[in-house]
Design goal:
This protein has 457 residues and is α/β, with parallel strands linked by helices. The chain has 10 helices and 15 strands. The strands form 4 sheets. Strands 3-9-8-7-6-4-5 form a 7-stranded mixed beta sheet, with helices on both faces. Helix 8 packs across helix 10. Belongs to the group II decarboxylase family.
Length: 457
């Protein structure tokens, strides 16, 4: 047996007579092929991908309507960074983040500043970088050292924040989640912050469980710390998922710019913003919250346009799609879509929580996401990883994974309900889940270890 990969092979039926039907897998072929041949080869291989509507692991949207698809095709070639060539797209981008600033209750949306990004990961990097630069400026103005900056986060933070700390030389200070404090809630926050803290990250929709971190409680704790120590520490809200849920389904929840300590917020347009991947947004409360030396300026049509980006060339089409949804759905449409998704999540949580094998980690859904663990049973011979594998045989991707440090001995499963997961599909999932549990309950010995599919946040 050889480790050398076989060539990609195409059925001769799909190739022109005399045309190559075998192509090297890891190097460019010497000769090209007809467009139809190349298409068929890639089309066939891509069929091995999973069914997106049955993927309950991902937050990322996978469906838009025909008008959005048409608009997308018309804008494939638009480069968001080229604001001189595409001034209309640049103007629409500005309209979008101003709409989002208004949605998040910015004191004066006209004086806020924001930008689109490649997903929330870039937006988080930018939010953290602005906190760091603002802290550096303040420290230098006071004649103090700018060495050893730190940022305070939950141990359940998404991996992009670990990347931020690594890439931009910031010490992460993780507040552990525990059975008593299942999210970062301000408890013992004074033990983690000091004069070198550039900010605190609050998550509106923790990736592991979907739970909101109570931003107001965190802000109140920081108010008490400032009263006691004089430390003025700002908050960045990572609202990758909740930023497009809370304004529509929990409008009275104080988590956004209504809290003076919140300096910046990000969201994924390609999650509950309902746009194809990859699109993110970040908005700062005011222009003063984004240090000017992070802003580059370009001129177009005789005017001045600020540009903020870690990436350079990137698609502009998704920005147009976000604007399309804002116009097409409006506030009422987003309420209805998100409400329908939440109804399906609550139905699933109710059905799964009622099964004696499971305990819901969070009984109430903040976003249409919830997690559960196994109920204690010393006679059980299977794990949630086994259940995840059995569900995969039915086409469902329902991840099982350990919780963060301090709770790493607890394994949970999580369901993300996205637009397109209908109530009918949810009933089929419940049916298959019960069948899988019934099968596993009949086993008289555990399955072998180490054979499970992996999952990473």
């Amino acid at each position: 047996m050889t480790d050398t990969p076989r060539d990609l092979e195409l059925n001769p039926l799909f190739a022109r007579a005399g045309e190559a039907t075998s192509f090297p897998r890891n190097r460019i072929p010497e000769e090209g092929s007809l467009p139809e041949t190349a298409y068929q080869l890639i089309h066939d291989e891509a069929m091995l991908d999973g069914n997106a509507r049955m993927n309950l692991a991902t937050f990322v949207g996978t469906w838009m309507d025909d008008h959005a698809d048409r608009l997308y095709r018309e804008a494939f070639d638009k480069n968001m960074i080229d604001k001189d060539e595409y001034p209309a797209t640049a103007e629409i981008e500005t309209r979008c983040w101003r709409m989002i600033a208004d949605l998040w209750n910015a004191p004066d949306p006209a004086s806020a500043i924001g930008t689109s990004t490649i997903g929330s990961s870039e937006a988080c990097m930018f939010g953290g970088l602005a906190l760091k630069r603002r802290w550096q400026h303040r420290r230098r103005a006071a004649g103090e050292s700018t060495e050893h900056p730190n940022i305070v986060l939950s141990s359940a933070v998404q991996v992009c924040w670990e990347k931020f700390c690594n890439y931009f030389d910031v010490e992460p200070r993780y507040v552990p989640v525990t059975e008593e404090h299942r999210v970062l809630d301000g408890h013992d926050l004074d033990r983690y912050v000091d004069e070198n803290t550039i900010g605190v990250v609050a998550i509106l929709g923790v990736t592991y469980t979907g739970m909101y971190e109570p931003v107001k409680d965190i802000a109140d704790a920081l108010d008490r710390i400032e009263d006691a120590t004089g430390l003025d520490i700002r908050i960045h809200v990572d609202a990758a998922s909740g930023g497009m849920i809370a304004p529509f389904l929990q409008p009275d929840l104080e988590w956004d710019f209504r809290l003076p300590r919140v300096a910046s917020i990000n969201v994924s347009g390609h999650k509950y913003g309902l746009v194809y991947p990859g699109l993110g947004w970040i908005v700062w409360r005011t222009a003063e919250d984004l240090p000017e030396d992070l802003v580059f300026r370009v001129s177009y049509l005789g005017g001045d346009m600020p540009t903020l980006a870690l990436n350079f060339s990137r698609p502009g089409a998704q920005v147009l799609l976000q604007y399309y949804l804002f116009l097409q759905l409006g506030m009422d449409g987003y309420r209805r879509v998100q409400g329908s998704t939440m109804d399906v999540a609550r139905y699933l949580a109710g059905e799964i929580g009622a099964m004696p094998e499971f305990e819901l980690w969070n009984a109430e859904c903040d976003i249409p996401v919830f997690a559960w663990r196994l109920a204690p049973d010393p006679t059980r011979r299977w794990t949630l990883h086994d259940l995840s594998d059995r569900l995969r045989m039915h086409g469902w991707l329902v991840p099982a994974y350990p919780m963060p440090d301090n709770l790493a001995d607890i394994t949970v499963q999580r369901i993300v309900v996205r637009n397109g997961m209908s109530h009918d599909l949810a009933t089929y999932l419940v049916r298959d889940l019960r069948a899988c549990v019934g099968y596993l309950n009949k086993m008289d010995a555990p399955l072998p270890d180490g054979l499970h599919s992996g999952f990473h946040h």
